[in-house]
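Hi R.,

Here's the chain you asked about this morning:
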Amino acid sequence: MKNPVNPEIRQHSRLRQLSAAQLQEYYSGRKLWGDDFTLEEIREWYQMEENACFEIYKNRGQIAQDTMPNNDCLHWKHGYQPALAGRGTLGRVLGLGSGNGEEFRPVRKFIEHLYIVESAEGYFHNDATTTYAKAQVDGTLLFVDDFFYTAVNIAVLHHIPNLSHVARELYRVLKPGGIVLVKEPSTTLGPWPLPRKAGLAPCERGFPRELLEKILLQTGFEIVRRAYFEFPPLRHLRDRGGIDTYNSPFWIGLDSLCCRLTEWNYRYHRTNFFQKLAPSYVFLVLRKPLKKTP
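And here is the predicted structure, written out as tokens:
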């Protein structure tokens, strides 16, 4: 069955200028689309993405009805549990693009104070333990160096063009020994030229796995743990069957098994059903190294 398309979605001006050969260079995973954009190109991207996800969820009724998919078990297993190992607290936490903060449900008791940097102001709701801040166009974080104990990026970096700059900012505001969680799609999310699948924001694209890790390692992070997950047929079971597959140890275990068995078939850009039978997401636990004493 063909995926529905979104007829109202716009296209970035830089994308319209690409030849088929240039587009293939990005689809191959050798280059990261958006990472070399000028400030004006980043601004255009930001304006297209600023409220896109909020509007998608709002139009579906998911925000008003509080029916967002529940991924608590997945986030605990692949992210929060290893992040808490040997620490007992997450301390001051940065949530980048964390929307209404639902991804922190399993760990609110471990958080000293949560700071959410978000582009869509419709989510903003400050309280005694949560402070919202507007995301900057270029991804710069308006915090002092070494401020956070933990930074959480749950499916947000792939909405940002200039990953290298944002990774450096995450590194800068994190305390030495601090932990960063990164959960991101590892495919192109389908062809980028119009029309795109319904439910996608205008500019989002996943990351080639090797290139994502290379950028993060070059920034200075250490990789503590990696997990490949989301076997596409099981994702369809969640989306079309209404099953919270990522809030169940059974389904997460089954997904992990399917991903291990199909790991050999991984590729960034997938053009047929067989190519899609492979892990499509990665969850990384990163650490900022402690400062070396002289």
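One quick note: The longest helix spans residues 72-84.

Cheers,
M.
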